[in-house]
Design goal:
Number of strands: 6
Distance between the termini: 35 Å
Strand order of the largest sheet: 2-1-3-4-5-6
Largest sheet: 6 strands, parallel
Mean pLDDT: 84
Helix content: 40-55%
Strand content: 5-15%
């Protein structure tokens, strides 16, 4: 699986490369600034890219902008963003095209290699991965906001785990319920958020996006 890495800190960039290579990924290019990332994504069109939100030259959101621009040219181009802090706006912007194959993790998660690699693989496979701290922040901040107000506590829990990128099987294991129960909660969530029946993965992305936009 071909990967582009974008990180301006040399030690972290080298660490990401080593971790990815150790798990069988091919790092086709590693860059340290926004313009180089834009070129690398356009040139390689990788199976997945691991990108720092803030890159030189201005250290604002060059990584995010390069990723969004690349996904505009290649819809669904898989991108896993890394950030030092919880930035709900960044997560929302990344998902706004509704194409899936996106992830948003805090950099601290990289130290949990298993969790990090799992996130990379899920994004590469077209899934959506959201950092648990981002999800917790959203729950705390928007607990009484529409369109989430109509969800039951159990449905909110399912949606929060869905936002982390977990499958129905993983959600069932986490909540100690059956997959059938999770599926029922998911369908209730889709109905309450006004998401018409379509491909399951697409509705999951739309549900998480509604969650971010609440």
């Amino acid at each position: 699986m071909r990967v582009v890495v974008a990180e301006d800190l040399a030690l972290l960039r080298d660490g990401l490369i080593r971790i990815l290579q150790a798990y069988g990924f091919e790092v086709v290019e590693a860059v340290d600034n926004g313009p180089s990332l834009a070129r690398a994504l356009n040139t390689h069109r990788p199976d997945v890219s691991v990108v720092d939100v803030r890159l030189p030259p201005t250290f604002t959101d060059e990584g995010l902008r390069a990723a969004i621009d690349a996904r505009a040219r290649v819809p669904g181009l898989p991108v896993l963003m890394l950030s030092q802090y919880v930035e709900q706006l960044y997560a929302r912007e990344l998902m706004s095209d509704r194409a899936g194959a996106v992830g948003y993790l805090l950099k601290d998660r990289v130290s949990d290699v298993g969790q990090f690699i799992d996130a990379v693989r899920r994004v590469a496979a077209g899934g959506t991965v959201m950092d648990p701290d981002v999800v917790a922040s959203l729950l705390a901040r928007h607990e009484d906001d529409e369109p989430l107000r109509g969800l039951t506590p159990r449905e909110r829990e399912v949606l929060s785990l869905m936002a982390e990128g977990r499958t129905n099987a993983a959600i069932a294991a986490r909540m100690f319920v059956t997959e059938k129960a999770v599926s029922k909660h998911s369908n209730n969530i889709f109905a309450k958020l006004g998401l018409r029946k379509s491909e399951e993965d697409n509705r999951r992305v739309l549900a998480v996006l509604a969650y971010l936009q609440a």
